[in-house]
Amino acid sequence: MSASVTGRTDFLDRIRIMLTSLVILHHTSIMYGGDGGWYLRFPHDDKLSKVLLTMLCATDQSFFMGMFFLLAGYFTPVSLMRKGISGFIRDRLIRLGIPLLIFTLLLGPFTIALADTRGSSEVWQRWGQLIADGVINPGPLWFAFALLIFSAVYLLIHPVIRGIGKTCNEQSLTHRNLLAVIAAWGCGAFLLRLWVPTGQEIAYLQIGFFSSYILLFFGGCAAAEHRLLEKITPALARPWLFISLLTIPTLMIYAVVSGALRGVKFDVHGGWTLPALFYAYWEAFVGTGIMLTLLWRTRVAKAPPALWKVMAPQCLGAFIVHAPVVVAVGLCIQPLQLHPLAMFALAGSASVVISFNLAAVLRRLPLVRKVI
C-alpha cells in the first residue's frame, strides 16, 4: 500500500479537535432547548432559543459524527496493514472496547444519577443503585460500539474496499461523483428512517443516521489508498460551501411555510412524508459542503498555535468524559438563571475547557494513557 496513509497529518488532528468540541457544544445545546435526547434538560418558553439551538443541532448532525466516521475509516487500512489482523483486533478492543465498557457500566449510570438527583448528595446512593440494578448506558460511546462493528465488517471485506480504493484517485474528486454520494446518502437516510425514525434506537444505535455513517466510514477506507482527504481543492470545496450555506436556512423556511410556528406538525424524523424526504437530502447537501470546506481550509491554513498540538491527544479522552461534565456544569450554573442562549454559551465553553483538561489529567496515568 505504497500510496496509502502513512501517518496522522496535523490538519486532520485539528479537525478532530473541532469535532470533539462541537460534540460537547451539541449536547449542551440540547440541554437548553435544542432538539434531541440528553440526560438533562432545562425547560423554558423562549421560542427563539429553541429554534436557534435546534437549527444548530440539525446543522451539527448533518456532518459532525459522519466526519468522525470518515476520519476513522481513513486511518483504518494503515492500522490493519501495520498491526496485522490480530494486532488490529487487539488495538480496537483496547482503544474502543475498554472506553465503551467503562462508560456503559460506570460513567453512563453516574451521569444518569447526576441528572436524576440534580447533583445533590444523594447522587452516590443513586449511582450505586443503578449499578446494582444492572442499568447500562453507552451514551455518546455508541460511537465506539458502531466503530467496533464497522471495523469487524472491514476485516471481512477489506480486499474489496482496497480494490475500490485503487480505482479512486484524484480524478475521482468531481462534482458528479459528489452528487452521486449525496443521492445515495439522502436515499439511504430516507429509507432507513422508514424503519427507524431519528430519535429512536436499536441496540443503542440511532439507525436513522447510519446512511451517512456507513458511506463515510467505508468511503474513508477507500480514500486512504490515494490519500484523497489531503487533496481537496478550493475549486472542489468552494461551490459546495456555497450550496451548503444556501441550504441551511431552507429547513427553517420550509417549517415556517408549513405552519410549524402555528402548531402544525412538521415531522422530519421519518415516514412517507415530504418533510422527511426533504430533511434526508437537506442533511446530505449541508454536510457535504461543511466537510469539504473543513478538509480544504484546515489543510491550507497557517500554522496553528502550539495549543492545538497539546489538545490533539486529548480528543478521545474529552469525548469519553464530556457527558458527566456537561451535566455537572449545567447544574452548577443553573442558579444564574440567565437567558437560555447565554446559559448555553457559558455551559458549553466551560464544558469544552473542563473536558479537555480532565482528559489531559487522566492521560497522565500510565494505564489510562495506554487506552486513550
Automatic annotation (TrEMBL):
Coiled coil: none annotated. Keywords: Acyltransferase, Membrane, Transferase, Transmembrane, Transmembrane helix. Pfam families: Acyl_transf_3. GO terms for molecular function: acyltransferase activity, transferring groups other than amino-acyl groups. The chain crosses the membrane at residues 15-32, 52-75, 96-115, 135-157, 178-196, 202-224, 236-257, 277-296, 316-336, 342-362. Residues 11-356 form the Acyltransferase domain. It comes from the Bacteria. InterPro entries: Acyl_transf_3_dom (IPR002656), Glucan_succinyl_AcylTrfase (IPR050623). The keyword Transferase applies. This is Acyltransferase.
